[in-house]
Model the fold of this input.
Amino acid sequence: MREFIKPIVVVSKCIEFSPCRYNGDKLSDQTVHNLKPFVEFIPICPEVEIGLGTPREVIRLIADGEKNRLVQPKTGQDLTKMMEEFAHAFLEELPDVDGFILKNRSPSCGITDVKVYSGLEKSPTIRTGSGAFTSNVLLAFPHTAIEDEGRLKNFKIREHYLTKLFTTTEFKKIKATQQIDQLNRFHKKNKYLFMAYNQKRLKILGRILSNKEKRPLEELFHYYEEELFKLFGRVPRFTSNINVCHHIFGYFSPHLSGKEKEYFLEMLEKYQEKKIPLSSVVCILKAWAYRFENEYMLDQTFFEPYPEALVEISDSGKGRDYG
Ligand code: SF4
Done:
């Protein structure tokens, strides 16, 4: 079983931590709940921090040309400046955080799906945007693992988020050491995971590491990090997972019986037809890595990119994907 470094994650405080929603509610959330032993959470409620009590009158985003304003229709209070000042001060004092989990649709914490109204009361929605607190987070942390609790209910999005979170957290620790042998080890054990994400970027990362240009270490780490963020820029394709499984299968194939090969290829086909999850196929490959005592394969993060205890196949039902 792999050991993982605990990422530091900022979370909207009303999710699992405090009854601080406008109506005095606290939200239960399975992902945040499950993550508690594996993550160092920094819970924050921006609305409470700017002095709004709980319970409180609702607030909303109002369009002001291209920009949005944060207002409380009942009192007519414009909270935009207060929220911006709070966000700046809070983000500046933050330790080196690894991720964010924020409340969807909230005018303060939502990431992309916050309703923006044309005016105060009884006015239509004219677009969606980022919450007043989160728009500052997005500017300050453009590459960090950030998601809202609503989207994290989708299995594939959750898997991608957790993979990026735990992998980039480990990379940051290695970057702090500036030791090339540690970066080489990191690259080696992530080979198949990176291949599943993007084969082209895996090659670029390999080229950076080979350092034909004789770059100084600091520069090399910088370029590697840039490419790593690009690699995690999108969820891995279904077909890439199949490709990686074929690669690993090819590795063990000379040592397998005809029946074993046949069974594995049948399972891979079932995965391809979306009849079984990827984990069913991966389990067979991992069992072979144990059987042949193959340390190189056992070390591959593709088999466990984030703590196994966090694997939950449940899904919101929206956009379910066996990828
Ligand atoms: S969504 Fe954000 S601002 Fe609203 S209650 Fe939750 S933590 Fe506070």
